[in-house]
């Protein structure tokens, strides 16, 4: 996909925005949240891919109801849990939500979603390397897709071991 980027002086450049693989020995975890309002539903999705771009595992989770902040944070928690259980010890977590990335880095104990943020902090304290990056939505496409289909699943987590099961 191309996106127009405007710079000073009215000039612009077109550049391709797409998913980029992580460095050697790292995995990439993309997560996203989704909220619908009619009917009210909150879901999340995520995918773990290797440094060669190969599919490792994916998930979708129907949360029932809630805010987009709740969804984004729950997706990050579930994604970190999945990456840890897979044995990944070098993880680049990519989210298209700059708000949640900032919350994880700066939230106080008084934030309304502090308990979810604290759970993320607990995961980050484990003996592994996790880097949190903000990506454009276009680079987070598959996680966005998994979050959107989560509304159609029963409440709870649903893990996919193959791309065909995730796309079914």
Automatic annotation (TrEMBL):
Source organism of this protein record: Linum tenue
InterPro entries: RNase_H-like, RNase_H-like_dom_plant, RNaseH-like_sf, RNaseH_domain, RNaseH_sf
Protein name, per record: RNase H type-1 domain-containing protein
Matching Pfam families: RVT_3 (PF13456)
GO MF terms held by the record: nucleic acid binding; RNA-DNA hybrid ribonuclease activity
Lineage: Eukaryota, Viridiplantae, Streptophyta, Embryophyta, Tracheophyta
Annotated ranges, domain RNase H type-1: 23-152
Transmembrane region(s): none
